[in-house]
Amino acid sequence: MKKLSYVGLGVMGYGMAMNLAKGEKSGKYKFLAVDRDEHVLQKFKEKGYQSTNDIGEATDSDYIFLCLPNLEIVKDVVLGENGLIHKLKPGQVIVDFSTISYLGAIEIAEKCKEKNIEFLDCPISGQQSKSLDGTLSIMCGGKEEVFNQVKSYLDCMGSQVLYMGDNGAGQLTKMINNCALNICVASFSELMPVGVKLGLNPEKLGDVLMTATGSSFASQTLIPKVLEGNFEHGFSLGRAYKDMESMFEVLTKSEIPLPTLSGTMQSYQMALQKGYRDEYKHAMVKVYEELLDVKVRKANYN
Predict the structure, then answer these.
(1) Residue 223, H or E segment
(2) Model confidence over 83-141: pLDDT tens digits?
(3) Is the pTM above the cut of 0.85?
(4) Residue-range domains of the chain with CATH
(5) Residue 113: which of 167, 173, 61, 191 has the closest Cα?
């Protein structure tokens, strides 16, 4: 019987791991949840699933799934002094759901390949609610035959599971998607204060930008939050900027000019300099509100 381990039970990882664990009831595999947080591990124990705070117990798994905060942590867990790469046997598979850089994913995959360990970069897209109900988008890079091996497991966690190409392809896809989203956020964050400055009603303007030809997922999701003055941290402006940094690193290496992305990065840089790093990315609207001395808010906003 196959053994699956899931390492990293944070905001997104918890729901994904719980959905994967449910498949244990089919009798086709055994499941192990791994995290340092005893509180979250207890939730798995209560449902009868094995859990541990010792990643070493995952090293005999056929498939090890990771969902970790950043590239540095992924590299430490996989390649570090006590990393998985030193303990796994040829043929074992690491599936990484973390959002890391394209070049970083390729580096890790090459190191794993030297040990005949398979590595798939499979970043995810979707809000926490989608991780809980198993409807995430999962973009995968690596050997197609290995992807086919794990596809049924990925289907437990995502409603759209796509094979994008060789190692790094998953991360590149995620980077492009995130950059497109960031550009959309910057566009309405800059333009709405202009409209308000010149006399437009912010709520009516928001309705147009959420429904007419200029609408986008970004406008539909975030303009209501702007109007309510809600800039609480979901996916912070600082993290959004890091996505663009990763993309810019690839563009520089490949000598590819992207003026729109470069301009968007400058908008984010202004917001970072103003101290909005830890707020949600649409907080950059505040930069232009301050510049034009307006507020893009509902009429009853206090």
Answers:
(1) helix 217-228
(2) 999 999 999 999 999 999 999 999 999 999 999 999 999 999 988 899 999 999 999 99
(3) yes
(4) 2-165 (3.40.50.720), 173-292 (1.10.1040.10)
(5) 167
